[in-house]
Automatic annotation (TrEMBL):
Signal peptide (residue range): 1-21
InterPro entries per the UniProt record, alphabetical: CCR4/nocturin_mRNA_transcr, Endo/exonu/phosph_ase_sf, Endo/exonuclease/phosphatase
Organism ancestry: Bacteria, Pseudomonadati, Planctomycetota, Planctomycetia, Planctomycetales
Residues covered by the Endonuclease/exonuclease/phosphatase domain: 30-283
GO molecular function: 3'-5'-RNA exonuclease activity; endonuclease activity
Designated name of the protein: Endonuclease/Exonuclease/phosphatase family protein
Keyword tags: Endonuclease, Exonuclease, Hydrolase, Nuclease, Signal
């Protein structure tokens, strides 16, 4: 009997250690411009597609969901339909409820929010509602520091979610520089950036964020460029759908996700979900699945 009890206890200890040593599950990240809900979009109006948006999100089951063009009532609708997420977002016009939000959603059972905040893409980023250069509207970033509950031995994640100006070329260029500076100034953390950048891979805005400048590599890599060549979308593959289904089309990627070398990119995809020839928004959502690198692995590769 005593031998049986000892063996049972030993088995429990081994099982417990195995559970403790289990690697964290991959992180699932989605960036989704959901199109502002007061637009006069006729058959694609928000009220006619909002449930489709939620279903598209649930189908991917992101741990992190970064949205763009999200008005307050849209943020609240998604928060109601996605109660398993913590929602964070403020209006770009007043830092309250006025204007589009870069609302982010964090799966509660996977990640704890340590801190969060916002800054504006301007020469005075800490001034609420500020705009500079040739920006047509205030543009902003919402960020959060997160601790992965499955990865206590990994660093905190700092996540930035943004939307660059749709008209101002100089504004997009400078926004790329400002965001890069904020990323570079974040030390010791895993980095994720999501957003609608209204810029192609050939743009200076893209180079300012992801390119090498004065011999210095960017703090983050475009997840699509981290894939093997044969799995990368062509340079002219669009992420703007204009509500039309039909799969891949030309037009170029203007929605991007970037990460630093704390992660290994398992997959990066454009989500071509459609129904009756229509997509849930005028942008295709983009997704990536990330694995934590073991401590020190990035330095060895």
């Amino acid at each position: 009997m005593q031998r049986f009890v000892c063996l049972l206890l030993f088995g429990l200890i081994v099982a417990t250690r195995s559970i403790e040593a289990a690697p964290p599950e991959p992180l699932r990240v989605m960036s989704f411009n959901i199109r502002y809900g007061t637009a006069k979009d006729g058959p694609n109006h928000w009220d006619l597609r909002k449930d489709f948006v939620v279903e598209t999100i649930k189908a991917f089951k992101p741990d992190l969901l970064g949205t763009q063009e999200t008005l307050g009532f849209q943020k609240d609708f998604l928060a109601e339909k996605l109660p398993e997420y913590t929602a964070i977002g403020v209006g770009r016009d007043d830092g309250g409820d006025k204007g589009e939000m870069m609302a982010i959603y964090i799966r509660k059972e996977r990640l704890d929010v340590v801190a969060s905040g916002h800054f504006w893409l301007s020469e005075t980023p800490d001034v609420v509602g500020s705009q500079s250069w040739d920006s047509s509207l205030p543009r902003m970033v919402t960020w959060a520091d997160l601790q992965d509950r499955q990865a206590a031995d990994r660093p905190q994640i700092r996540w930035f979610n943004t939307h660059f100006d749709h008209r101002g070329i100089e504004a997009r260029k400078q926004a790329g520089r400002l965001l890069r500076e904020r990323l570079a100034g974040t030390t010791g953390k895993a980095l994720i950036v999501t957003g609608d950048f209204n810029s192609l891979e050939t743009s200076e805005a893209y180079r300012n964020l992801f390119g090498t400048i004065d011999g210095h590599a960017s703090p983050v890599l475009d997840v699509f460029k981290s894939l093997p060549k044969e799995k990368q979308p062509t340079g002219d593959t669009a992420t703007f759908s204009n509500f039309r289904g039909g799969g891949p089309r030309k037009g170029g990627r203007i929605d991007w996700i970037g990460v630093n070398d704390r992660f290994r990119v398992v997959s990066a995809e454009i989500d071509y979900t459609e129904r009756d020839g229509r997509t849930p928004s005028d942008h295709f959502p983009i997704t990536t699945i990330l694995e934590w690198r073991t401590p020190g692995a990035a330095e060895k590769e």
